[in-house]
Amino acid sequence: MKYGARNTIKAKVKSVHKGDIMTLVKFDAISAPEMASVLTTESVEGMELKPGDSVQLVIKAIHVLPVKE
Amino acid sequence: MKYGARNTIKAKVKSVHKGDIMTLVKFDAISAPEMASVLTTESVEGMELKPGDSVQLVIKAIHVLPVKE
Amino acid sequence: MKYGARNTIKAKVKSVHKGDIMTLVKFDAISAPEMASVLTTESVEGMELKPGDSVQLVIKAIHVLPVKE
Amino acid sequence: MKYGARNTIKAKVKSVHKGDIMTLVKFDAISAPEMASVLTTESVEGMELKPGDSVQLVIKAIHVLPVKE
Amino acid sequence: MKYGARNTIKAKVKSVHKGDIMTLVKFDAISAPEMASVLTTESVEGMELKPGDSVQLVIKAIHVLPVKE
Amino acid sequence: MKYGARNTIKAKVKSVHKGDIMTLVKFDAISAPEMASVLTTESVEGMELKPGDSVQLVIKAIHVLPVKE
Fold first, then answer.
1. Which among E39, E45, E54 is the top mutation candidate for probing chain B, defined by the most B β-carbons within 10 Å of its own β-carbon?
2. Is residue F1 domain-resident?
């Protein structure tokens, strides 16, 4: 299986909270992942982002796609 | 700082690959994060997702927002 | 009407399942569409994607925007 | 393989246009797919969307994830 | 024209910066828009978001779809 | 605080409509914002987008991230 995405995090399902239309699922990642972000070069320059910087990576839950093999 | 997003991963910048319009940034997460996903209840039922299941969480790099405090 | 998006699929509404906040709508596409994807060049090379390859195009329902003219 | 997404379209790669950071890939869908969209109930009511309506489904190329099995 | 989206901002194009694959376009909004966000109820409660609060609405440029009528 | 995103709109919360899993929040922007969009160069050329053009910027509510400082 090869995905056209830079981030694939191995995880275990911790809880499933079902609603009528949408469901919220929580996971524990199995290890600290390598992550990748694509942003505009303007944003990178505005942030003065460089190797060694500490950041928070913010990801809305709606953008996380679980796949079960 | 409070974000309207379920996933915030502490990370360090590893590399910055600048292009004309878009830039690809790589990070190392500092620890194994808790993650959350919102998907349709239909998808959860189609996958038979339940606590304990092993999954891959796939996230396109474009959906990862770095924030520097 | 001109959209700043590469994918526009003609479709007919098949069902509407309303929830309090979010609603799930199903459609039948009228014909087999041409589709486009933008991904990192790294991902394309990791997948060794080339003309003629068979793939699945996975799209979360939340990223599909219906427009009624 | 089970995906936490309502839309999976079988397709063949038609062309690959590589850039430095991002790449644009074109596909031909193999058949007319069933599609699903999640939107706010307010939007559905504002559009008066109902079974039988003709619509355009607009999807930015960045939201299309190719998977090669 | 009816869009399945809660946010439609009238704007004028200010600049177009073309790259090989991706292009960055800047706009001036014509007036202060009403905006809507959908997030998990958990996030809203974690932020203690209530009427009158001042916030920043952060939107990646990739999620903004221009339409020309 | 520096965000890896081109759009940050100052706004005040107007209403909060809570559901079980997802919540819809409405805001009033404090002033007319400058906005940015990234799209494929092909789309820009297909739309013949140029400075001075009037457009609608369409953004699904799910892509709007509120941050409270």
1. E39
2. no
* Whether A45 contacts chain F with CB within 8 A: no
Q: Which of B24, B39, B42 sits opposite C40 (nearest CB)?
A: B24
- DSSP labels, D7-55: EEEEEEEEEEEE-SSEEEEEEEESS--EEEEEEEHHHHHHHT--TT-EE
B65 and chain E in contact, CB less than 8 A: yes
pTM: 0.96
- Give the C-alpha separation, E35 to E45, whole Å: 20
Does some domain include residue E5? no
Q: Report chain A's mean pLDDT, rounded to a whole number.
A: 97
Nearest to D40 among F39, F42, F61 (CB): F61
Chains in contact with E via at least 3 Cβ–Cβ pairs below 8 Å: A, B, C, D, F
B1-20 pLDDT, tens digit each: 899 999 999 999 999 999 99
**What residues does A25 pair with on adjacent strands?**
A16, B37
The list of chain D residues with pLDDT below 50 reads none
Domain carrying residue C49: 11-63
ipTM over 0.85: yes
Residues 6 or more apart whose Cβ sits within 8 Å of residue B45: none
How many domains in chain B?
1
Select from C4, C22, C38 the Cβ nearest to the Cβ of F37: C4
Pairing between β-strand E22-29 and β-strand F34-40 as defined by DSSP bridges: antiparallel
Given strand C7-18, what is the order of strands in its sheet? D34-40, C22-29, C7-18, D54-59, C65-68, E2-3
Answer yes or no: is C17 within a domain.
Answer: yes
Residues C51, C31 contacting (CB under 8 angstroms)? no
Does some domain include residue C5? no
**Chains in contact with A, where contact requires at least 3 CB pairs less than 8 Å apart:** B, C, D, E, F
**Residue E38 structure tokens:** 């959908």
Q: Percent of chain A having pLDDT more than 70?
A: 100
- The number of helices, as runs of H, and strands, as runs of E, in chain E is 1, 6
**Chain A residues with CB-CB distance to C59 below 8 A:** none
Task: List Cβ neighbours of A54 (8 Å cut-off, separation of 6 or more).
Answer: B10, B11, B12, B68
